[in-house]
Amino acid sequence: MLHTRHINQGFDRGRMSGLALTTLVMILAAGCGGEKKSQSGGEPVIASTTPVAATDPGRDVGGDVGSLERVAFDYAETAYKEKRYGEAVRMFTTYVDQRPDNRWGHYMLGLSAWKSGDLVSAESAFVRTLEVDPRHLKSLLNLSRVLLEQGQPKAARARVTAALSVDSTSGEAYRLLGRIRNALNQPNEAMAAYRMALSLDPTDTWSMNNLGLILIQQQRYEESLAPLARAVQLDSGMAVFQNNLGIALEHTGRFGLATTAYHAAIAGDSGYTKAVLSLARVDGRTEDTTLMPLDLASLAASFDGEIRTAKVSATVTKKDTVPPER
Q1: What is the pLDDT of residues 166-208, one digit of tens each?
Q2: pLDDT of residue 191
Q3: Contact (Cβ atoms closer than 8 angstroms) between residue 215 and residue 242
Q4: Any residues with CB less than 8 A from the CB of 107 and at least 6 apart, and which?
Q5: CA-based nearest residue to 139, from 172, 110, 169
Q6: Residue 299 contacts residue 226 (beta carbons within 8 Å)
Q7: Domain count for the chain
Q8: Distance CA 144, CA 154 (A)
Q9: CA neighbor of 216 nearest in space, from 226, 207, 206, 224
Q10: Please, are residues 178 and 146 in contact by the beta-carbon 8 Å criterion?
Q11: If you average pLDDT over every residue of the chain, what do you get?
Q12: Which domain holds residue 324?
C-alpha cells in the first residue's frame, strides 16, 4: 500500500502559453493507451530472517501549477495515484521535456519510474530534481531509498547526510540512516540512528520495528520485546510487526503469547506466509511454567516513556559524508 501525504509547497509557476497547450495535448495523447495497472513492490525493510517488502511513509505528491500546465500535471498525477505507473512515466516524461526547470515534474517522474520498477530511471529523475533544487528534501530522501534498493548503501548514505544538512530534525532521514548503517554492517550505529528518529517522532513504528529486529538478530530477545510491543500497540494490524513480536516472544520461551501474535499477524494479512510458518512452528510447544508473567502493555508504556525522555544526540559522523558512488 502506498502512503502519501499532501504537501503545501508551491510548484514553479509559469505563464500560460502555446507551449502549455502543446504539453497538455501531448500528455492527454500519451495517457490514452489503457495500460494495465502495475504492481507496487514497496520499500524493503529489515525483517527477522529475510527482507520484507513493505512501504514506508514519505513519498509525497501534490502541489499546484498554473492554467493548462496545471491540468497537464494533474492528469499525470492522477495516473500515478491510480497506480497506472507506466502511463504516469510517459506523461511526466513529456511534461519535463516541456518544463525542464520544474523540479516537481522531475520529482514525480522519479516516483513514477520507481513504482514501475525502473530504479535506474528513478535515480536519474531524482538526480535531475536535485540539479534544479539541491535542497529538495524529499528527492534526497527518496534517492537514498532508490540507491539502497540498488545495493549502493554508501551512495545512499551521502544523500541522506545531505538531507540532514537541509533538515537536521527529520526523523524520516534518521530512520533511513538506520537502514543504511545496518546495510553497511554497522548495527550499533543503526540502532543509534533509529533511537534518534524516535526521539524526534515517538510514534515512528517502523523505527521501533527495525530497532527490535536488530536486537533479534543480535539474539537480545528480551530487549527486543519493548520496541516491538510498542509498535504493535500503535499499529496492531501490521502483520510484519506482529510476526516479529511473535519471534521475540518465541525465543524467550513464551509460546502462548507468541501464538497470539502470530494469529494477529495472519488476521492482519491472511496471505502472510512467514506468520503461517511461525504459527506452525510453535503449535503444541509447552511453555516453561517457571517464566515470570509478561505484561506487553507495560513494556510498551515503558519504552514510550524511555524514548520521550531520552537525551539522544545526533550521530552523523565524518564517515557518513562520502561522495556518491557512480
Answers
A1: 999 999 999 999 999 999 999 999 999 999 999 999 999 999 9
A2: 97
A3: no
A4: 125, 126, 129, 136, 138, 139
A5: 110
A6: yes
A7: 2
A8: 10
A9: 224
A10: no
A11: 81
A12: 202-326
